[in-house]
Amino acid sequence: NSLQERILRYSSRYLGSEYEDVLKKARKYLNLLRDYIQEINSHKKFNFSNADEVESVKTQVKLIRDKYTSLLSKKHLAIADQLLAEIDYEVSKLISNTEKWVLNLEGLIETAKFSEAKSILTQSRSFHTTEIDARIDSIRLRISEQEEQDIIVKIENLFLSITDPLKRKECVNRLKKLI
Q1: Phi, psi angles (nearest 5°) of residue 16
Q2: Does 13 score more than 80 pLDDT?
Q3: Which one of 3, 28, 64, 179 has the fewest CB atoms closer than 10 angstroms to its CB?
């Protein structure tokens, strides 16, 4: 920015000289570079919730880089590549954290701590992949199946608490009507 200001400040000194074209080209290049950096920086927010969002941002960054390929130096174009690498790094951290969260849930399911798993499951993670979503769906299904088993056990126990055989038979008939 200060280079651009100095070029603007001193450009009138070189009007009509052999350096006028050089300064115009430098000013044009700096304007392109400024626009490029602004476009790249607009994609530096890493609030991804799924892989589709990541791919969309990466595609946009690549399109920006491609748009400026013939206009800027390789050194300046590398800014886009650096951003792409930063995105990949941030996503790998998000996936790693979500993977640990899912592994914890799966461990709770394996140790029959369904209510604890259900409670943790309500605290949804910020990043999901197709594989992680499938594993979460499997955990939800196992929790749901366990809840239904628990209800059946409760109904069974309540049914057994009815001591009168006629009332038990009446209860069975009422339950059959619900089917």
Answers
A1: 80, 0
A2: no
A3: 179
Nearest to 117 by CA among 147, 153, 88, 87: 147
Chain centroid, CA 136 distance in Å: 15
Determine which of 21-25, 95-99, 153-157, 175-179 has the lowest per-residue pLDDT on average. Answer: 21-25
Three-state DSSP string of 58-117: HHHHHHHHHHHCCCCCHHHHHHHHHHHHHHHHHHHHHHHHHHHHHHHHHHHHHCCCHHHH
- The whole-angstrom separation of Cα 12 and Cα 24 is 11
Angle at 123 between CA 118 and CA 125, to 5 degrees: 120
In order, the DSSP letters of 4-36 are HHHHHHHGGGGTTSTTHHHHHHHHHHHHHHHHH
Q: Which helix (H) or strand (E) holds 53?
A: helix 51-68
Which two structure tokens, joined as six digits, stand for 10? 């001193």
For 40-98, write each residue's pLDDT tens digit. 999 988 788 888 899 999 999 999 999 999 999 999 999 999 999 999 999 999 999 99
- The structure's pTM equals 0.71
Instruction: Look at residues 94, 102, 60, 51 and name the one whose alpha carbon lies nearest to residue 80.
Output: 60
Confidence of residue 123 (pLDDT cuts 50, 70, 90): confident
Taken in order 35, 37, 38, 39, the sign of the CA dihedral is positive
